[in-house]
Amino acid sequence: MKKILYYLKIIYEFIIINIKSPLFFAETYTKYQKQIVFKKKKNNVFAFIDLQTTRSNFDIAAYLIHLKTLELINNKTKINLVILPDNDNAKIKLSYQKEDKSRKFFMHLRHNNITMQCINIVENFKPNIFVLNNRAEADQIYSLPSKNKFPNNINKYKPINLVNYYKELIKIYNEKKIIAKIIAKPAYLSLVDNYFKLKKIKNKKVITITLRNSSYRKFRNSNISEWIKVYKYFEKNGYYPLIIYDFEDASIDNYPKKLNTFSYANTDINVRLALYEKSYFNFFSGTGTVMMAYLSKNCKFLDFLIYNKEYEKTVFKIAGLRKNQQFPWLNKYQKGIWIKKFSSRKIINEFNSINSKI
Predict the structure, then answer these.
(1) Could you say which residues of the chain have pLDDT below 50?
(2) How many other C-beta atoms lie within 10 A of the C-beta of residue 86?
């Protein structure tokens, strides 16, 4: 009975936390119209998120971190987020990758579960948020001086390239040693605490392993058998390993049964981030969600990326990083490692090296 009550408490908290998110949208248009009155205020910046052109992956986190970093550099700057809908017949070039076009239903899930939720996890980021019904509502903003828009060359027919902002963040950090960070909200940390109590692992060292099992760029997918060896190693040595499945993978039939999991973390990135922060250590294998860790204030992690020349070119184009180069803001418990193939021995050795510093 006690366990049932604990489960009900976790479910209740999860529902209450998430039901609050949509409620502010009802007032958003009225607030938007009021904000227009102050649109030419020198430090009032309108930043766009275009759901019609974005792939709604975790690159949005770098864009949002960039916006918050602008506020940190100049505390007079006030960011307003203008979210353009993806239900228009606007004559704009889609930036979806080819394989995404046949998965439009999945893109809508990404909008709700990644793009909109990422706004909530940037530390002390409290922008005015305006969710528009159509592009025409943004016409007054497009005509603003460039200093009041972000990107400053935005127009209604030009997609926003979110991946550019990794390079911008590196440039800012190298010059000013300033960067905003991602951090879990207290309510979600409490929810994870309750889960740990329920599972009686409050005093154990939790190890998360986030797997990739995507339908595109399959060469980046996790080698499940090698990661299971890693899982067994930690289980044998008194840790509590916990698997986080791929967000895209609707079925868990591909995975061995009887592995420790936490399904809420699989579907809600706020819970996922709280879990990463509460865990002793976190492992990734080139998943999109690892960008939360790279931009996180409190996550300890290792990210293992499968190396090939094409992927290295892609990473260099996006972030300006070559093989084994690191983002300059990472701490000594955060690291990306390029590998030719997944090896449980390599993964465990890398952990033991970094674990000696914790």
Answers:
(1) 20-30, 37, 96-99, 250-252
(2) 17
